[in-house]
Specification:
The chain is built from seven helices and 34 strands. The protein folds into two domains: 223 residues, Spore Coat Polysaccharide Biosynthesis Protein SpsA, Chain A (Alpha-Beta Complex), CATH 3.90.550; 144 residues, Hexapeptide repeat proteins (UDP N-Acetylglucosamine Acyltransferase, domain 1). The strands form six sheets. Strands 1, 4, 5, 6, 7, 8, 9, 10 and 11 form a nine-stranded mixed sheet that branches. It has an eight-stranded parallel sheet with strand order 12-15-18-21-24-27-30-33, with helices on one face. Strands 14-17-20-23-26-29-32 form a seven-stranded parallel sheet, with no helix packed on it. A hairpin with a 5-residue loop joins strand 8 and strand 9. The protein starts with a strand and ends in a 12-residue tail after the last strand. Helices cover 18% and strands 29% of the residues. The radius of gyration is 27 Å and the shape is elongated. The chain is of the alpha/beta class. The structure holds uridine-diphosphate-N-acetylglucosamine and calcium ion.
Length: 409
Protein backbone atom coordinates (compact mmCIF):
# COMPACT_ATOMS: atom_id res chain seq x y z
CA UNK A 1 0.00 0.00 0.00
CA UNK A 2 1.73 3.27 -1.04
CA UNK A 3 1.81 6.07 1.48
CA UNK A 4 -0.81 8.81 1.35
CA UNK A 5 0.42 11.97 -0.34
CA UNK A 6 -0.68 15.54 0.25
CA UNK A 7 0.39 18.59 -1.74
CA UNK A 8 0.96 22.11 -0.52
CA UNK A 9 0.96 24.63 -3.35
CA UNK A 10 2.44 27.99 -2.38
CA UNK A 11 0.44 30.74 -4.02
CA UNK A 12 0.15 33.51 -1.45
CA UNK A 13 2.81 35.96 -2.57
CA UNK A 14 2.07 39.39 -3.96
CA UNK A 15 4.88 39.33 -6.49
CA UNK A 16 6.44 42.76 -6.50
CA UNK A 17 8.64 41.78 -9.46
CA UNK A 18 5.58 41.30 -11.70
CA UNK A 19 4.38 44.88 -10.95
CA UNK A 20 0.74 43.82 -10.75
CA UNK A 21 -2.42 44.39 -8.74
CA UNK A 22 -3.51 40.83 -9.52
CA UNK A 23 -2.46 37.73 -7.60
CA UNK A 24 0.49 36.46 -9.61
CA UNK A 25 -0.88 32.92 -9.90
CA UNK A 26 -3.96 34.20 -11.76
CA UNK A 27 -1.89 35.61 -14.62
CA UNK A 28 -2.65 33.49 -17.65
CA UNK A 29 -0.38 31.17 -19.56
CA UNK A 30 -1.96 30.15 -22.88
CA UNK A 31 -5.42 31.10 -21.63
CA UNK A 32 -5.38 29.44 -18.20
CA UNK A 33 -4.23 30.84 -14.83
CA UNK A 34 -0.68 29.62 -14.18
CA UNK A 35 -1.85 27.98 -10.94
CA UNK A 36 -4.23 25.66 -12.79
CA UNK A 37 -1.34 23.80 -14.44
CA UNK A 38 0.26 23.13 -11.07
CA UNK A 39 -3.05 21.91 -9.64
CA UNK A 40 -3.59 19.63 -12.65
CA UNK A 41 -0.13 18.09 -12.29
CA UNK A 42 -0.96 17.23 -8.66
CA UNK A 43 -4.25 15.67 -9.68
CA UNK A 44 -2.57 13.65 -12.42
CA UNK A 45 -0.36 11.84 -9.90
CA UNK A 46 -3.33 11.13 -7.64
CA UNK A 47 -2.53 13.44 -4.73
CA UNK A 48 -4.85 12.54 -1.85
CA UNK A 49 -5.13 16.01 -0.38
CA UNK A 50 -4.65 19.24 -2.26
CA UNK A 51 -3.86 22.34 -0.20
CA UNK A 52 -3.30 25.73 -1.68
CA UNK A 53 -1.86 28.62 0.34
CA UNK A 54 -3.23 32.00 -0.62
CA UNK A 55 -2.81 35.47 0.78
CA UNK A 56 -2.65 38.48 -1.48
CA UNK A 57 -6.20 39.05 -2.90
CA UNK A 58 -7.12 35.54 -1.88
CA UNK A 59 -10.82 35.90 -2.67
CA UNK A 60 -9.95 36.51 -6.31
CA UNK A 61 -8.02 33.25 -6.37
CA UNK A 62 -10.81 31.28 -4.69
CA UNK A 63 -13.42 32.62 -7.10
CA UNK A 64 -11.25 31.81 -10.13
CA UNK A 65 -11.27 28.18 -8.96
CA UNK A 66 -14.86 28.12 -7.69
CA UNK A 67 -15.62 24.91 -9.59
CA UNK A 68 -12.61 23.03 -8.18
CA UNK A 69 -14.10 21.49 -5.07
CA UNK A 70 -11.10 19.29 -4.28
CA UNK A 71 -8.88 22.20 -3.19
CA UNK A 72 -8.47 23.11 0.49
CA UNK A 73 -7.64 26.82 0.68
CA UNK A 74 -5.40 27.94 3.52
CA UNK A 75 -4.97 31.60 4.20
CA UNK A 76 -1.58 33.15 4.95
CA UNK A 77 -2.52 36.52 6.39
CA UNK A 78 0.94 38.05 6.06
CA UNK A 79 3.45 36.95 3.44
CA UNK A 80 6.50 36.16 5.53
CA UNK A 81 8.16 33.77 3.11
CA UNK A 82 7.84 30.31 1.59
CA UNK A 83 8.64 28.53 4.87
CA UNK A 84 5.96 30.51 6.68
CA UNK A 85 3.49 29.73 3.89
CA UNK A 86 4.04 26.01 4.45
CA UNK A 87 3.78 26.34 8.25
CA UNK A 88 0.28 27.81 8.06
CA UNK A 89 -0.87 24.44 6.62
CA UNK A 90 -0.23 22.63 9.89
CA UNK A 91 -3.91 22.56 10.95
CA UNK A 92 -5.12 21.51 7.51
CA UNK A 93 -2.81 18.49 7.82
CA UNK A 94 -3.31 17.73 11.53
CA UNK A 95 -5.09 14.45 10.77
CA UNK A 96 -2.80 13.49 7.90
CA UNK A 97 -0.03 10.90 7.89
CA UNK A 98 2.28 10.42 4.93
CA UNK A 99 4.29 12.40 2.41
CA UNK A 100 3.81 16.06 1.67
CA UNK A 101 4.82 17.46 -1.69
CA UNK A 102 5.53 21.19 -1.50
CA UNK A 103 5.62 23.13 -4.76
CA UNK A 104 5.23 26.72 -5.87
CA UNK A 105 2.17 27.90 -7.79
CA UNK A 106 4.27 30.00 -10.17
CA UNK A 107 5.85 27.15 -12.14
CA UNK A 108 3.27 25.99 -14.66
CA UNK A 109 5.82 24.09 -16.77
CA UNK A 110 6.24 21.38 -14.14
CA UNK A 111 5.35 17.94 -15.43
CA UNK A 112 3.31 15.38 -13.57
CA UNK A 113 5.90 12.72 -14.56
CA UNK A 114 8.57 14.65 -12.64
CA UNK A 115 6.30 15.07 -9.65
CA UNK A 116 5.52 11.35 -9.74
CA UNK A 117 9.23 10.51 -9.91
CA UNK A 118 9.90 12.81 -6.95
CA UNK A 119 7.36 11.01 -4.77
CA UNK A 120 8.58 7.56 -5.89
CA UNK A 121 12.24 8.40 -5.26
CA UNK A 122 11.34 9.79 -1.86
CA UNK A 123 9.46 6.64 -0.85
CA UNK A 124 12.12 4.30 -2.18
CA UNK A 125 14.93 6.01 -0.24
CA UNK A 126 12.88 6.52 2.89
CA UNK A 127 14.34 10.02 3.26
CA UNK A 128 13.06 12.81 5.50
CA UNK A 129 13.02 15.10 2.47
CA UNK A 130 13.74 14.66 -1.22
CA UNK A 131 14.35 17.46 -3.66
CA UNK A 132 14.39 17.41 -7.46
CA UNK A 133 16.94 19.81 -8.97
CA UNK A 134 17.83 21.23 -12.38
CA UNK A 135 21.03 22.32 -14.09
CA UNK A 136 20.78 25.74 -15.74
CA UNK A 137 23.32 27.48 -17.97
CA UNK A 138 22.18 30.69 -16.36
CA UNK A 139 21.21 29.96 -12.74
CA UNK A 140 20.54 33.57 -11.81
CA UNK A 141 17.48 34.17 -9.68
CA UNK A 142 17.29 30.64 -8.27
CA UNK A 143 18.41 29.07 -5.01
CA UNK A 144 21.70 27.17 -5.46
CA UNK A 145 22.16 23.54 -4.40
CA UNK A 146 25.09 23.10 -2.04
CA UNK A 147 26.76 19.68 -1.97
CA UNK A 148 29.84 18.44 -0.13
CA UNK A 149 32.91 16.95 -1.84
CA UNK A 150 31.18 13.54 -2.04
CA UNK A 151 28.12 15.02 -3.70
CA UNK A 152 25.93 14.79 -0.60
CA UNK A 153 23.34 17.51 -0.21
CA UNK A 154 24.21 20.19 2.35
CA UNK A 155 21.42 22.65 1.76
CA UNK A 156 20.13 25.43 -0.47
CA UNK A 157 21.38 29.01 -0.52
CA UNK A 158 19.23 31.76 -1.99
CA UNK A 159 20.90 33.94 -4.58
CA UNK A 160 20.89 36.99 -2.34
CA UNK A 161 22.72 35.07 0.35
CA UNK A 162 25.27 33.37 -1.94
CA UNK A 163 29.00 33.88 -1.70
CA UNK A 164 30.73 34.81 -4.95
CA UNK A 165 31.77 31.18 -5.36
CA UNK A 166 28.29 29.77 -4.67
CA UNK A 167 26.85 32.12 -7.25
CA UNK A 168 28.60 30.08 -9.96
CA UNK A 169 26.83 26.83 -9.02
CA UNK A 170 24.61 25.77 -11.89
CA UNK A 171 22.53 23.22 -9.99
CA UNK A 172 19.44 25.05 -8.80
CA UNK A 173 16.32 24.54 -6.72
CA UNK A 174 13.19 24.58 -8.90
CA UNK A 175 10.99 24.19 -5.75
CA UNK A 176 9.97 20.54 -6.01
CA UNK A 177 10.12 19.06 -2.52
CA UNK A 178 8.71 15.91 -0.97
CA UNK A 179 8.77 15.79 2.83
CA UNK A 180 7.83 13.13 5.27
CA UNK A 181 5.13 15.04 7.16
CA UNK A 182 6.69 14.32 10.57
CA UNK A 183 9.84 16.16 9.59
CA UNK A 184 8.28 18.99 7.61
CA UNK A 185 6.78 20.89 10.53
CA UNK A 186 9.55 19.88 12.94
CA UNK A 187 12.06 21.53 10.59
CA UNK A 188 9.91 24.54 9.74
CA UNK A 189 9.53 25.37 13.42
CA UNK A 190 13.28 25.90 13.54
CA UNK A 191 13.52 28.14 10.46
CA UNK A 192 14.55 31.71 11.34
CA UNK A 193 14.30 34.78 9.10
CA UNK A 194 18.03 35.51 9.28
CA UNK A 195 18.71 36.25 5.62
CA UNK A 196 18.92 39.35 3.46
CA UNK A 197 15.15 39.40 2.85
CA UNK A 198 14.19 38.75 6.49
CA UNK A 199 11.83 35.95 5.39
CA UNK A 200 11.18 32.41 6.59
CA UNK A 201 12.58 30.26 3.79
CA UNK A 202 11.37 26.73 3.19
CA UNK A 203 14.78 26.09 1.67
CA UNK A 204 16.33 26.38 5.15
CA UNK A 205 14.32 23.33 6.27
CA UNK A 206 16.69 21.09 4.30
CA UNK A 207 19.83 22.24 6.07
CA UNK A 208 18.05 21.94 9.41
CA UNK A 209 17.06 18.33 8.72
CA UNK A 210 20.58 17.45 7.56
CA UNK A 211 22.07 19.02 10.69
CA UNK A 212 19.61 16.96 12.74
CA UNK A 213 21.04 13.79 11.20
CA UNK A 214 18.13 13.07 8.89
CA UNK A 215 18.39 11.87 5.36
CA UNK A 216 17.89 14.55 2.69
CA UNK A 217 18.37 13.64 -0.97
CA UNK A 218 18.56 15.79 -4.04
CA UNK A 219 18.43 14.25 -7.52
CA UNK A 220 18.76 16.00 -10.86
CA UNK A 221 15.27 15.23 -12.03
CA UNK A 222 13.97 18.45 -13.60
CA UNK A 223 14.70 19.39 -17.22
CA UNK A 224 16.07 22.92 -17.57
CA UNK A 225 13.03 24.00 -19.58
CA UNK A 226 10.60 22.80 -16.91
CA UNK A 227 12.37 24.57 -14.05
CA UNK A 228 11.39 28.11 -14.89
CA UNK A 229 9.28 29.91 -12.32
CA UNK A 230 7.45 33.11 -13.23
CA UNK A 231 8.66 36.13 -11.31
CA UNK A 232 8.45 38.80 -14.03
CA UNK A 233 6.49 39.72 -17.14
CA UNK A 234 9.45 38.56 -19.24
CA UNK A 235 9.31 35.13 -17.65
CA UNK A 236 5.53 35.09 -18.10
CA UNK A 237 6.05 35.60 -21.84
CA UNK A 238 8.86 33.07 -22.05
CA UNK A 239 6.91 30.39 -20.18
CA UNK A 240 3.91 31.18 -22.40
CA UNK A 241 6.00 30.53 -25.50
CA UNK A 242 7.24 27.19 -24.15
CA UNK A 243 3.69 26.20 -23.15
CA UNK A 244 2.45 27.21 -26.61
CA UNK A 245 5.01 24.85 -28.16
CA UNK A 246 3.79 22.05 -25.95
CA UNK A 247 0.16 22.65 -26.88
CA UNK A 248 0.99 22.71 -30.58
CA UNK A 249 3.11 19.55 -30.36
CA UNK A 250 0.29 17.75 -28.57
CA UNK A 251 -2.13 18.76 -31.32
CA UNK A 252 0.30 17.79 -34.08
CA UNK A 253 0.68 14.38 -32.45
CA UNK A 254 -3.11 14.12 -32.62
CA UNK A 255 -3.03 14.71 -36.37
CA UNK A 256 -3.60 18.47 -36.65
CA UNK A 257 -1.54 20.34 -39.27
CA UNK A 258 -0.15 23.65 -38.05
CA UNK A 259 1.44 25.30 -41.06
CA UNK A 260 3.47 27.95 -39.22
CA UNK A 261 3.79 27.16 -35.50
CA UNK A 262 5.60 30.33 -34.38
CA UNK A 263 2.88 32.47 -35.96
CA UNK A 264 -0.06 30.59 -34.47
CA UNK A 265 -1.51 30.84 -30.97
CA UNK A 266 -3.79 28.16 -29.56
CA UNK A 267 -5.40 28.19 -26.13
CA UNK A 268 -4.58 25.30 -23.79
CA UNK A 269 -8.31 24.52 -23.59
CA UNK A 270 -8.91 24.24 -27.34
CA UNK A 271 -9.75 20.87 -28.89
CA UNK A 272 -8.98 20.29 -32.56
CA UNK A 273 -9.84 17.23 -34.66
CA UNK A 274 -7.56 15.14 -36.85
CA UNK A 275 -6.73 16.39 -40.36
CA UNK A 276 -7.75 19.95 -39.63
CA UNK A 277 -5.28 22.50 -41.01
CA UNK A 278 -4.46 25.70 -39.13
CA UNK A 279 -2.98 28.38 -41.41
CA UNK A 280 -0.63 31.15 -40.19
CA UNK A 281 -1.64 34.02 -37.92
CA UNK A 282 -4.59 32.19 -36.43
CA UNK A 283 -5.48 33.08 -32.85
CA UNK A 284 -7.64 30.62 -30.92
CA UNK A 285 -8.59 31.83 -27.46
CA UNK A 286 -10.84 30.11 -24.93
CA UNK A 287 -12.83 26.90 -24.95
CA UNK A 288 -12.98 26.32 -28.68
CA UNK A 289 -13.87 22.98 -30.27
CA UNK A 290 -12.94 22.28 -33.86
CA UNK A 291 -13.93 19.12 -35.71
CA UNK A 292 -12.09 17.10 -38.37
CA UNK A 293 -11.00 18.23 -41.86
CA UNK A 294 -11.58 21.90 -41.09
CA UNK A 295 -9.53 24.70 -42.61
CA UNK A 296 -8.80 27.62 -40.29
CA UNK A 297 -7.12 30.88 -41.27
CA UNK A 298 -4.91 32.51 -42.31
CA UNK A 299 -5.71 35.37 -39.90
CA UNK A 300 -8.70 33.75 -38.21
CA UNK A 301 -9.76 34.70 -34.67
CA UNK A 302 -11.76 32.04 -32.81
CA UNK A 303 -13.01 33.01 -29.37
CA UNK A 304 -14.55 31.32 -26.36
CA UNK A 305 -17.53 29.08 -27.07
CA UNK A 306 -16.82 28.54 -30.75
CA UNK A 307 -17.79 25.07 -31.96
CA UNK A 308 -17.00 23.99 -35.50
CA UNK A 309 -18.27 20.65 -36.76
CA UNK A 310 -16.36 18.73 -39.47
CA UNK A 311 -15.33 20.17 -42.87
CA UNK A 312 -15.84 23.78 -41.82
CA UNK A 313 -13.86 26.57 -43.50
CA UNK A 314 -13.08 29.75 -41.56
CA UNK A 315 -10.91 32.04 -43.59
CA UNK A 316 -9.10 35.30 -43.55
CA UNK A 317 -10.06 38.04 -41.03
CA UNK A 318 -13.03 36.14 -39.69
CA UNK A 319 -13.90 36.35 -36.00
CA UNK A 320 -16.15 33.87 -34.23
CA UNK A 321 -17.49 34.01 -30.70
CA UNK A 322 -19.87 31.69 -28.87
CA UNK A 323 -21.12 30.29 -32.14
CA UNK A 324 -21.66 26.92 -33.72
CA UNK A 325 -21.00 26.21 -37.39
CA UNK A 326 -22.56 23.01 -38.74
CA UNK A 327 -20.55 20.61 -40.88
CA UNK A 328 -19.51 21.95 -44.24
CA UNK A 329 -20.32 25.58 -43.33
CA UNK A 330 -18.03 28.20 -44.82
CA UNK A 331 -17.06 31.71 -43.75
CA UNK A 332 -14.11 32.44 -45.96
CA UNK A 333 -13.52 36.17 -45.66
CA UNK A 334 -13.95 39.21 -43.40
CA UNK A 335 -16.88 38.20 -41.19
CA UNK A 336 -17.94 38.63 -37.58
CA UNK A 337 -20.07 35.78 -36.27
CA UNK A 338 -21.23 36.12 -32.66
CA UNK A 339 -23.80 34.17 -30.65
CA UNK A 340 -25.07 32.28 -33.68
CA UNK A 341 -26.11 28.73 -34.40
CA UNK A 342 -25.44 28.04 -38.03
CA UNK A 343 -26.62 24.91 -39.84
CA UNK A 344 -24.87 22.53 -42.20
CA UNK A 345 -23.35 23.73 -45.46
CA UNK A 346 -24.31 27.35 -44.86
CA UNK A 347 -22.31 29.75 -47.04
CA UNK A 348 -21.48 32.98 -45.24
CA UNK A 349 -20.49 35.53 -47.85
CA UNK A 350 -17.53 37.86 -47.53
CA UNK A 351 -18.07 40.71 -45.11
CA UNK A 352 -21.18 39.27 -43.43
CA UNK A 353 -21.77 40.67 -39.95
CA UNK A 354 -23.89 39.19 -37.21
CA UNK A 355 -25.20 42.19 -35.25
CA UNK A 356 -25.55 40.37 -31.93
CA UNK A 357 -25.45 43.41 -29.62
CA UNK A 358 -28.06 46.18 -29.54
CA UNK A 359 -26.11 48.44 -27.21
CA UNK A 360 -27.62 46.86 -24.11
CA UNK A 361 -27.99 43.16 -24.66
CA UNK A 362 -26.58 40.25 -26.59
CA UNK A 363 -29.04 38.34 -28.81
CA UNK A 364 -28.82 35.09 -30.72
CA UNK A 365 -29.16 34.24 -34.39
CA UNK A 366 -30.12 30.89 -35.89
CA UNK A 367 -29.46 30.08 -39.53
CA UNK A 368 -30.94 26.91 -41.07
CA UNK A 369 -29.03 24.33 -43.13
CA UNK A 370 -27.78 25.17 -46.65
CA UNK A 371 -28.80 28.83 -46.49
CA UNK A 372 -26.73 31.22 -48.59
CA UNK A 373 -25.89 34.60 -47.05
CA UNK A 374 -24.88 37.11 -49.72
CA UNK A 375 -21.76 39.21 -49.35
CA UNK A 376 -21.90 42.27 -47.16
CA UNK A 377 -25.10 41.26 -45.35
CA UNK A 378 -25.95 42.22 -41.80
CA UNK A 379 -28.05 39.82 -39.73
CA UNK A 380 -29.63 41.71 -36.86
CA UNK A 381 -30.26 39.53 -33.80
CA UNK A 382 -32.54 38.18 -32.43
CA UNK A 383 -33.16 36.46 -35.71
CA UNK A 384 -34.09 33.10 -37.19
CA UNK A 385 -33.37 32.36 -40.82
CA UNK A 386 -34.93 29.19 -42.25
CA UNK A 387 -33.21 26.40 -44.21
CA UNK A 388 -32.33 26.78 -47.89
CA UNK A 389 -32.81 30.57 -47.88
CA UNK A 390 -30.92 32.89 -50.21
CA UNK A 391 -30.08 36.26 -48.74
CA UNK A 392 -29.19 38.87 -51.37
CA UNK A 393 -25.84 40.66 -51.23
CA UNK A 394 -25.84 43.69 -49.00
CA UNK A 395 -29.10 42.90 -47.19
CA UNK A 396 -29.86 44.02 -43.66
CA UNK A 397 -31.98 41.17 -42.32
CA UNK A 398 -34.25 41.74 -39.31
CA UNK A 399 -36.76 39.48 -37.61
CA UNK A 400 -40.05 39.57 -39.52
CA UNK A 401 -38.44 40.53 -42.86
CA UNK A 402 -39.28 38.38 -45.81
CA UNK A 403 -36.01 37.35 -47.37
CA UNK A 404 -35.34 38.33 -50.93
CA UNK A 405 -34.46 35.30 -53.02
CA UNK A 406 -32.46 37.00 -55.76
CA UNK A 407 -29.14 36.73 -54.01
CA UNK A 408 -26.46 34.13 -54.32
CA UNK A 409 -24.37 32.71 -57.04
C1 LIG B 1 11.87 30.22 -4.56
C2 LIG B 1 12.95 29.48 -3.78
C3 LIG B 1 14.20 29.35 -4.63
C4 LIG B 1 13.85 28.66 -5.92
C5 LIG B 1 12.70 29.33 -6.65
C6 LIG B 1 12.23 28.43 -7.79
C7 LIG B 1 12.60 30.07 -1.43
C8 LIG B 1 13.10 30.86 -0.30
N1 LIG B 1 13.26 30.22 -2.58
O1 LIG B 1 12.35 31.54 -4.81
O2 LIG B 1 15.18 28.61 -3.93
O3 LIG B 1 15.00 28.60 -6.75
O4 LIG B 1 11.59 29.52 -5.77
O5 LIG B 1 11.27 29.04 -8.57
O6 LIG B 1 11.67 29.31 -1.27
N2 LIG B 1 4.74 32.49 -1.48
C9 LIG B 1 3.74 32.43 -0.53
N3 LIG B 1 3.89 33.13 0.62
C10 LIG B 1 5.00 33.86 0.90
C11 LIG B 1 6.03 33.92 -0.08
C12 LIG B 1 5.88 33.21 -1.26
O7 LIG B 1 2.72 31.75 -0.72
O8 LIG B 1 5.05 34.44 1.99
C13 LIG B 1 4.55 31.76 -2.75
C14 LIG B 1 4.57 32.66 -3.96
O9 LIG B 1 3.25 33.09 -4.26
C15 LIG B 1 5.13 31.78 -5.04
C16 LIG B 1 5.97 30.77 -4.29
O10 LIG B 1 5.61 30.86 -2.93
O11 LIG B 1 4.12 31.12 -5.78
C17 LIG B 1 7.47 31.02 -4.44
O12 LIG B 1 7.75 32.33 -3.99
P1 LIG B 1 8.73 33.31 -4.78
O13 LIG B 1 8.76 34.59 -4.06
O14 LIG B 1 8.36 33.30 -6.21
O15 LIG B 1 10.11 32.56 -4.55
P2 LIG B 1 11.43 32.72 -5.41
O16 LIG B 1 12.11 33.99 -5.04
O17 LIG B 1 11.15 32.47 -6.84
CA1 LIG C 1 9.20 32.16 -8.01
Amino acid sequence: MPKATAAIILAGGQSTRMVTDMPKVLHEVCGRPMLSYVIDACREIGIDRLICVIGYRKDDVISAFAEDKDIVWVSQAEQKGTGHAAIVCRDALSDFEGDVVVIAGDMPLLRSETLGLLVKTHEKNNAAVTLATAILDDPSGYGRIIRDEYGNLQGIVEEGDCTEEQRHIKEINPSYYCFDKKYLFEALDQVRPDNVKGEYYITDALHILIQGGHRADAFRGVAAEDAMGINSREQLAEVGRIMQNRIQHRLMHQGVTIVDPPNTWIDARAEIGQDTVIYPFTYIHGRVKIGRFCSIGPFAYLRDGTVLKDDVVVGVFTELKNSLLGSGARARHLSYIGDAEIGKEVEIGAGTLFANFDGQQIHNTVVGDRTYIGQGSILVAPLKVAENEQIAHGTVVKEGDSISRDGGS
